[in-house]
Amino acid sequence: MPRKSSSTGESPERITDAEHAVMEALWDHDGNASAQDIYDSVGAAREWSLATVKTLLSRLVQKQAIATSPDGRRFLYSPLIARSDYVGGESRRLVDKLFGGRAASLVAHLAESEALTMDDLTEIEQLLKELKQ
Amino acid sequence: MPRKSSSTGESPERITDAEHAVMEALWDHDGNASAQDIYDSVGAAREWSLATVKTLLSRLVQKQAIATSPDGRRFLYSPLIARSDYVGGESRRLVDKLFGGRAASLVAHLAESEALTMDDLTEIEQLLKELKQ
DNA sequence: GCTTCATGTTTACAAACGTAGTCGCTTCAC
DNA sequence: GTGAAGCGACTACGTTTGTAAACATGAAGC
């Protein structure tokens, strides 16, 4: 039994950890990067072979997370989803899963578990002040 | 090539989504629950068979996330890791992965993306005030 | 004492993932 | 034009995950 839900070819296709690393590299390149570029910026560091990077790129294309545009005999890849959307989605997932959807609970937890330094607290406080107006 | 690192039987074994649902049920039961109990509280709702629940429990035992204590011919299962530790760990993972380890960035993102209501903001502000003393 | 039921253990199997090799085609240098 | 190099597509393979059936065993009822 397949695990996906989807129906009308919609694409909230889950991005895996390895794929995410590739996405980060793509976001860094403002869109237009070749497989080799990605390999240079993320593959090498992670000790992936170029082949691995290519596989990940293909999978991301299938998942409609990135698009290709021909550039001579090769492709340039560019993200189809904005980093902030991705980040927002993942954050929401976590909040839903662990904090019953209450984002404030997450903040509370971070604060209580001292994941936040005094500086962080000040920074956030400042931020809130701005947002509340 | 295996993905695990571990060496001296250490156990930061990753808990999967399905396993997490079981953990939540266990945390709810203040520790002592039978496979049937877990099935009743989470398996049924998710339309898992009792067999599935048993598999997940076994895997959690292997991963040393829960312990068993005999109770007649069956086992009672209890968490070996506190929910708040788990939650903290997962939160940290997310912050590391998406916000370069800066928790404040996560809060900023939640706020800016309007994942936080005005009430949330007030609540957090209140919280911060207490924490900063 | 046997059947039945509950329960943990073992085995199963497809899909997803991480990781990578190979194939086929094109192009560039000689 | 012939060979090397670059590149995407296809194939591969072990592991993890989701989901579950089959099996063994012991208890409990009759």
Q: Would you give an account of this structure?
A:
The structure is a homodimer of 133-residue chains. With 133 residues, chain A is mainly α. In chain A, 59% of the residues lie in helices and 9% in strands. Chain A has six helices and two strands, in the order αααββααα. A two-stranded antiparallel sheet of chain A has the order 1-2. Chain A is elongated and about 50 Å long. In chain A, 25% of the residues are buried. At the A-B interface, helix 4, helix 5 and helix 6 of A face helix 4, helix 5 and helix 6 of B. The first copy, chain A, binds a DNA duplex (30 and 30 nucleotides) through helix 1 and helix 3.
Task: Tell me the helix content of chain A.
Answer: 55-70%
- Biggest sheet statistics of chain A: 2 strands, antiparallel
- Oligomerization state of this entry? homodimer
Q: Classify the secondary structure makeup of chain A into a structural class.
A: mainly alpha
Largest interface: A-B, 37 and 37 residues
Poorly predicted residue ranges of chain A = 1-9
Q: What form of chain A results from the Cα inertia axes?
A: elongated
Distance between the termini of chain A: 50 Å
State which percent range the strand residues of chain A make up: 5-15%
Spell out the helices and strands of chain A N to C: HHHEEHHH
Mean pLDDT of chain A: 85
| Arrangement of strands in the largest sheet of chain A | 1-2
Count, helices of chain A? 6
Per DSSP E runs of 2 or more residues, the count of β-strands of chain A stands at 2
Could you tell me the radius of gyration of chain A in angstroms?
Answer: 19 Å
